[in-house]
Amino acid sequence: MLKRSLHPRSATSPGRLVAAGTSLIAVTYGVVRYGYGLQLPALTSELGLSSALAGAIAAGSFAAYCAAALWAQRAMARRSPRAVVWVAAALAASGALLVGASSSAWSLAAGVLVAGSAAGAASPALVAAVASTVDARRAGRAQAVVNAGTGVGVALVGAATLAAPDAWRPVWFGAAAGALVTAAVVDRSARWPSGPEGSPPTDDAGPPGRQAVARPRGPFVRAGVAAAVAGVGSAAVWTFGRDLVTVTGGLPGRTSAALWCLLGVAAVLGALSGDAVRVLGLRRAWVVTVLATAAGTAALTLAPGSVLVVAAGGAVFGGAYTAMSGVLIAWGAALRPHAAGRATAVLFVALTAGQAAGALVTGGLSDVVGPQAAFWAGAAALVAAAGIVPTAAPGPGGPSTTTAGGAGEGGYASSSGGTGRTGSPSGPSGSTSVRSSASGSTQRW
User: Fold this and answer.
1) Domain assignment present for 391
2) Sign of the CA dihedral running 358, 333, 268, 162
3) I need a labelling partner for 181 at 20 to 30 A (CA). Which of 38, 296, 397, 425 fits?
4) Domain total in the chain
């Protein structure tokens, strides 16, 4: 009886996993990744950062995120996602401690790079943890809720900045502790897979765990390009948004912090992205969320000194961006249902690579032509991303191809629970649907 009570699976709790996973995302994304941009005015004042240097540090953080996500994608093909969660927590804690203790721009940069990489490992591991722990019928909504943890973190940083605008160090020290505590709860709450992710029964040759991400490349590359372009456009607000409304718009520091709290609270609404995909389908959900993100960016750019406009624009941006990233998770899961975590890693790498480029471009343009012109360029990039819509991968016999017990050349691997793809048109758009084992629901294209 004692041996049974100590078995890791006896402590699994889907509800507790979702709560802890949301908290871990809040720390790794909302605090140690996006917190840098929210605290940029105080960091610039104390450590003497120029716009170009601030943009370079943000770009380095995004690049570190990409490196960690690519590592996580490979690691999860060889071992359980459990180890990847702890790597994410260690990166967040060590980077946050370094930022909190920084006394120069260089030590700050090192800490931001290490801390910013944590989210790249956290997302794919948590996607896999939720998929293996939560009932398939509720997994899609659970994934969206965990992903919305970003908004919780942003709201917390905004509240801390509102209470003490110049006391940024305690926020980072608190984040270090939070990363370790939430990772421990996630570890205890998840039903971890016994082996690597993405090893469905298949006759395909190749190393275990790689078949599900090997077929076919066209639609997945399209998803990556869409994510990258969206990343370019969204970098302006995440990196320089608060700087825009305080320096260019002239809003008081406390006012801008309160507005960023609102942005974070609105971002929590991104938890509805799972329902948006179910109701609208992937194509419409992607277009709607990306265009709404562009609208929020444009509102901030149009009137950075208006409290009402900034409040509305920030709220729209926060909710839409988080929902957009949730749609990316659903997009990857629909294309790679047996490797949803690894697919998320690849798409989020593309999103973040775009943000790295966008941070550099926005910082450089701000110094040359002014911040508002740079933000308009970001909004334009988001409009362009909305035009790159999801497409279903064709099977060997065309859209109507369905495979039994496996995956055809259409790239939709079937799960033990049954992953079928229906080819009948869904209205005049001719959209198809796919049942994803990661979300447990039929995805409409």
Assistant:
1) no
2) negative
3) 38
4) 1
Is 334 part of any domain?
Answer: yes
CA-to-CA distance for 334 and 346, rounded, in angstroms? 14
Q: Which domain holds residue 126?
A: 11-196+210-386
pLDDT of residue 198: 57
Q: Under a CB-based contact definition with an 8 Å cutoff, are residues 213 and 339 in contact?
A: yes
Burial 40-59 (b: 16+ CB within 10 A, else e): bbbbbeebebebebbbbbbb
Q: Give, as one character, the DSSP assignment of residue 204.
A: -
Give the torsion sign (CA, 73, 340, 274, 142).
negative
Q: What are phi and psi of 434, to 5 degrees?
A: -140, 135
Residues 414 and 403 sit within 8 Å (Cβ to Cβ): yes
Instruction: Specify the residue for token string 């507790």.
Output: 16
Neighbours of 6 (CB within 10 A): 9
pTM here is 0.71
390/26 Cα distance (integer angstroms): 28
- Two structure tokens written together for 182: 């939430």
Closest listed residue to residue 193, CA positions, set 136, 133, 121: 133
Q: Which of the 8 DSSP states describes residue 244?
A: I
pLDDT of residue 338: 80
pLDDT along the chain (445 residues), means of 10: 42 85 93 84 84 82 87 86 94 95 90 92 90 83 86 86 85 95 94 66 41 61 94 90 88 82 81 74 92 96 93 92 89 83 86 87 88 94 94 49 30 31 33 42 50
Domain annotation covers residue 292: yes
pLDDT attached to residue 287: 95
Determine, yes or no, domain membership for 410. no
Written as one letter, the residue type at 430 is G
pLDDT at 421: 34
Q: How far is the C-alpha of 128 from the C-alpha of 143, rounded, in Å? A: 10
303, two tokens: 């009137």
* Domain containing residue 116: CATH number: 1.20.1250.20
